[in-house]
Here is the input.
Amino acid sequence: MNYLYAAYAATWIIHGSYLCSLAIRYRRLKREMKDLKPRP
Amino acid sequence: MKKAFPILAILTAALLGYAFYEAMFVAPTDQMQGDVYRIIYYHVPSGWTMFVFFFTNFIASIVYLIRRNPKADAVAVAAAEVGLVFCTVVLVTGPLWARPVWGIWWTWDWRLTSTLVLWLIYASYLILRRFSTGGQTPVLAAALAVFGALDMPLVYFSIWFFRTQHPQPVVGGGGSIDPSMLRVWMISWAAFLCFGWLVFWLRYRLEIFKREVEETHSLEAMLEEPRFR
Here is the structure.
């Protein structure tokens, strides 16, 4: 059963980490865009 | 899509929860392997979903090579990345199933090795896209994707044509599976496909946004040059 739990947990750790990486990249790009925009 | 996204996300989460419940509590226990066989309800649907995204990358790369359409290129990048995530799940859950059932974590048979090669091909594709700065990068990446996709049939048919340690096909390959197990497999695949599609959409939007930021950067750089003032 431990292998089963490990496999299910690993699946969601991989997907969760990827979603976190997407969120981080999105935040970084948003900040970059914000820094670029205020020019009159 | 932007407005429908939260609703689709909730529905997908519910479907994933239902698939988990079916896989853990409804699907019958395998007589030979016991409960550990339930790993296949995550392993196999992840593999099928991986194929869907790598195939999407293949088609989008061909479209880009023919039409030089930047949206096709964005689809290709997003599909390759999401496909690689699912491929990683396959390569991690596979050995976790193999250890208690085969007694080993890994063996260099056709199916396992070709899947690892597939992972390496798409990792190379993403590394190329990340670190190459030349204007020809999307063309080179698309060419790599088209040749890399040749590994997909090898992965899929390796268990049909070669003697492998990996189990033989039970769907469409002459094998059989209990209908109650097949049903859970399909529910799980539908859930992972919906989840993968939502993640793909997020990644695609991120790629489009990244290109907008890059264009704004280029415009800024041009405006800062003295001759444009």
Notes: Residues 4-165+174-223 of chain B form one domain. The radius of gyration of chain B is 21 Å.
